[in-house]
What does this fold into?
Amino acid sequence: MKKVIALALSVVMALSLVACGGEPAAPAKFKVGMGHNISAKMTDATADKAGSAQVDTTMLVAAFDAEGKVVSVSIDVAQQKLGVNADGTTADASKVDTRTKIEKEGDYGMVGASGIGKEYFEQIEALENWMVGKTVEEIVGMPVMDRGDGSHTHVPTDADLAAGCTITVKSYLDALQEAWDTAVEVEGLAKAGLGQNISVKGTAATADKKGSAQVDTNMVGVALDAEGKILWAKIDVAQQKIAFDATGAKAGDVDVRTKVEKEGDYGMVGASAIGKEYFEQVKALGEWMVGKTVADVAAMETFDRGDGSHTDVPAVEDLKASVTITVGAYLDALVEAETNAK
It folds into this structure.
């Protein structure tokens, strides 16, 4: 199916080069966007059993043709869980499996519980393939059912999809809607992709201070032309902290907004030498990437501030006035997005 999509895009691009009478025509226009959906939960620790803090980050990048129909879509979920003990300590965060559900492939272990004998990555591929050629309105309006078990509330019942996908799809539909609502127009699209970089850390609680389990999911969407040059790049980070007390019990609500969604609430301006908030800096970085290849961007010169956290700050002259954050995780995710692009 991926080859079919790539061929279709190639044909559209080829046809756009020649208009009636042999005159050059404007490149075909597409739209590309990135969406997400985040949830966080915690199971409190007891004297007999450790608890856990879990963050699920659904990520999606989609490309649409001039009629608003999906030409490619990439879906994945970062589902990270950190153990929390009854004494307010956490499990070793360095041992958390930071692979996404797709990256785990057969290790995810869905086949045994699947009524159709399909692993998670296979079911997502079936869903992605089913979306191609449809509008967002058609996809979001798909018929679904509630299994009544409290978790499978939006299971597809479409005859063409039910045989390949029996997971609940609500978070994917919400992410697709966001991708469409925030999509931007590009010309000469060849492929689009999604990349990510994930880290987990835990801080123990004390009698005087809450502990936390923190998950950072760096998300990058990219659109490329036939020469591999970037037409669009979007960067965001889902940085969720689940707080708990010295008994390993949840202590407070979780803000599930991304860093970009927080805008001024993120509070970077006060610590920024250039007076720029986070969302302004990643927007400037994405705009700077346009017209360059991923290899060119990934090879950018950086420097280490020596403070232990800002290890990959751009040393590029054109970025000095707009980007002073560390960018290593974004560059890694960008490279992966190109690799995954379709």
